[in-house]
Design goal:
436 residues, mainly beta, Jelly Rolls, 2 domains, eight-stranded antiparallel β-sheet, 1 helix, 36% strand
């Protein structure tokens, strides 16, 4: 969501603002700052959010400046997968600890750094006749939730546990109930079901409004998680990520960015576009797990790294060896780069495409023993000392930054959306792709 948020003013008639349930699937992109999930009211507001500072990543539920304040000991700092969050409130309960319950991925949280519960029959602003924001807290300096949300439910008048919205599959993995059997109540709603629609699917007509930013659809969802760049391990103060960690901007020194996932087998395809006005300092390729994760990575300094120049030089660096002008044709800023990694065949290869056509020179690299029995990562390197250097990466979400692919190519696996045809036998780096 980044700078995007949704808003709706709840009805003040017929509501139950003592009993309600919030359920949503959430994928975080940035974990260092506060991240508002749901707020109600503008002064002495109620909120559900992720914390920063000394409790960075903890989940906090707070009413009216301290009338209730519950914060988990557990920290939620994984940006590679989805969390299912349920907050069930029933202030009519005689036992204080039953008045706010928090569930993550089907399991109730029981360990808290603070656990101040509301008084019995306390009237909350959430569920009442107030402005409710999703993804924004107007009282905070950095108010937005940075990430994705899916299958967002609000239940007015019933406190459900997590099993109303999710269940375990045959492998013991918590998954979505796409059409839960629940009673929504007057202010209840169901939005962001299978895309970026804020039209209420509950039958109540409680539609939301996109109040800021752009709400972008994504192929990444709780049932099929796509690779992104790793904004946690590979980050300096000047290396920045955006667009769900699918865009990386480099500082004025050589650093590199890897995907969160590495693979040791399979056939994988992804696309990228360099955004620099002067792309001479932009490189893309793959790295083996053996490459150190330090910030001083340079394009030609490592065995186990294959890096292609995204610019007029056409240079290639393969396992520490440099070959000038080895690419034909060279890449320009408007070109879409395709990479096909084959770790299954007798001869493992990396193939490079420009706008859907394999390079005539340098288009295939046979992988050395550095890539045997190890994880291999999509990799990007840059240095913005002479001009801004950044990449937009499409691991199958169908976007380069905020721009959707213009006309999707064919894809036999049916997983992910790419600008150009996916080579036969290759698929997107995603959980469904891993399970093929």
């Amino acid at each position: 969501m980044a700078s995007t948020y949704l808003t709706r003013t709840f009805s003040s008639s017929g509501t139950s603002d003592k009993i309600w349930t919030w359920s949503s699937w959430i994928k975080r992109s940035e974990v260092t700052g506060e991240a508002a999930i749901l707020t109600a009211g503008s002064s002495a507001r109620d909120f559900i959010r992720f914390e920063a500072s000394t409790t960075i990543g903890a989940l906090r539920v707070r009413f009216s400046n301290g009338s209730a304040d519950v914060t988990t000991n557990r920290r939620f700092r994984d940006t590679s997968g989805w969390y299912h969050l349920v907050v069930a409130v029933d202030t009519t309960q005689a036992t204080a600890s039953n008045r706010i319950k928090i569930y993550i991925n089907g399991v109730q949280e029981t360990s808290f750094s603070s656990s101040s519960y509301p008084s019995q029959n306390y009237v909350t602003k959430i569920g009442g006749g107030y402005v409710h924001n999703i993804g924004n807290d107007s009282e905070q300096t950095v108010p937005y939730f940075d990430g994705s949300m899916s299958h967002v439910h609000f239940i007015d008048g019933t406190a459900y546990d997590a099993s109303a919205f999710g269940e375990y599959d045959a492998n013991g993995v918590w998954k979505i109930k796409t059409s839960p059997s629940v009673t929504y109540g007057t202010n209840g709603f169901f939005i962001l079901k299978d895309g970026n629609s804020v039209t209420d699917q509950s039958g109540n007509g409680n539609n939301f409004t996109v109040a800021g930013g752009t709400l972008t659809n994504t192929e990444d969802n709780p049932s099929n998680v796509f690779a992104t760049l790793d904004a946690i391990q590979y980050k300096t103060s000047a290396l920045t990520y955006s667009n769900g960690n699918n865009t990386v901007s480099f500082p004025g020194a050589w650093v590199f960015a890897l995907s969160q996932w590495g693979v040791s087998s399979g056939k994988w395809y992804w696309e990228a576009k360099v955004n620099s006005g002067n792309n001479a300092n932009s490189y893309y390729g793959i790295c083996a797990e053996m490459v150190p994760a330090g910030n001083g990575f340079y394009n030609n300094s490592q065995n186990g790294a294959i890096m292609y120049a995204a610019g007029d030089s056409g240079d290639i660096y393969i396992d520490g060896s440099y070959t000038a002008s080895a690419q034909t044709p060279q890449n320009k800023n408007t070109d879409i780069l395709g990479l096909a990694l084959d770790l299954d065949s007798g001869t493992k290869t990396l193939k490079i495409y420009k706008n859907g056509t394999q390079l005539t020179s340098g288009g295939t690299v046979n992988l050395s023993s550095y890539y045997n029995d190890t994880l291999v990562f999509p990799c990007f390197s840059g240095n913005s000392s002479s001009a801004s250097c950044s990449f937009n990466v499409n691991f199958g979400n169908g976007y380069f930054g905020t721009t959707a692919v213009s006309s999707a190519g064919t894809n036999a696996s049916g997983i992910g959306i790419f600008e150009y045809d996916v080579p036969t036998g290759y698929t997107a780096l995603s959980t469904k792709g891993l399970n093929l």
